[in-house]
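step: validate -> pass
step: tokenize input -> pass
step: predict -> running
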Amino acid sequence: MSDTARDRAGAGRLLSGMVWNGLGRGLPLLLALVLTPVLVGQMGLERWGLFTLALALVGVFGIFDLGVGPALTRALSERMTADTPHAEAETGRLVGTAMAALAGFAALGAAALWAALPWLMGSALNVPESLQAEALAAFRILAVAAPLVVVNAALWGVLAAHQRFRAANLVTIPVAAMYYLGPVLVLLVWQSLVGVMLALVACRLANTISYAWLCRGLLPRLSLGSPLLVLPLLRIGGWMTASSMMNQALIYADRFLVGAVLTLAAVAYYATPLDLVLRMWIIPVAVAQALLPAMASAFRLLPEATAGLLRRGALMIMLLTLPPCLILAGFAETALRLWLGAGFAAESAMVLRILAGGIFFSCLAYAPGALLDAIGRPDVTAKFMLAQVVVFLPLSA
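step: predict -> pass
step: emit ->
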């Protein structure tokens, strides 16, 4: 038992998981940067604006999983090192019930979105009348993908619990790349948002099928059980979701405050370097995803190994994020001038210097955050985030 936990907590698995998770997030991002000008040219500004809203909407669908994906990773990882009779059947029942419950909840959310879309497209978003019918049909197609998003989150949770990061990311990378490459290819033969949304839904479906294929040997006895089985996952996942939502609120609130107090130009000068430094989160997220299953398996049986995981994870994050943060802080004006021109650099260089320092400490928080999630205390993180919101927003105003 202890050998299994020690093996799961090994440095080799942590490093492998971190590398594959980083590639899974980083490579599609690079392709997106290359293809964005192509898509803007193909779609035009109005359709491109709707496309970016569609991508944001796919991200919002992730709320429907209520944090059950990482909660499932934690629960399954902890069970793997416990002597529990009928463990295989119980695991299959837990995962099957969680996926069914989440898919049902997401379907209700998709139905609500379907009903609200005529108002969104006709009034709320000021979509041009010539595009309203096309946009309505396209976004209704996208709404169908909501259950796929949450099922994918649960399946990823299973793969992460078994530390199958290499296999999971090998299928994730091409699917994520097709989020941008697919629309480019579709628009060559069909100038319509409907075709673009069909490509996005096809990507989600391909993701679901590939994850399910990878999980087939891990869950040989998948079944349904009482909905009460999901309650512990919802408790843990609910705190994780609350923490994530408050973090997003802190990220986006300041740019709205800048716009309210100063000007829209000031928002651009602030938000652009902020979006640049936020890309640094790819590194700590990749490490935290690898830490969670290892820590969840080891913390009860091998506390010393768990402490070692925390140290290694924090050291990896520090070593990988400190150099680029120092470069951005030291050469902020040069980097911005080469990227966006001298005028932009003159206004945003100091902002980039300050944010480069702040993002470094934000990255370091991911390792202890993974430990709190692994031991079943994500509420501590959520309460700390709430304290930040309570202090930050009044001071900013």
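step: describe -> The chain has 17 helices and no strands.
step: cleanup -> pass
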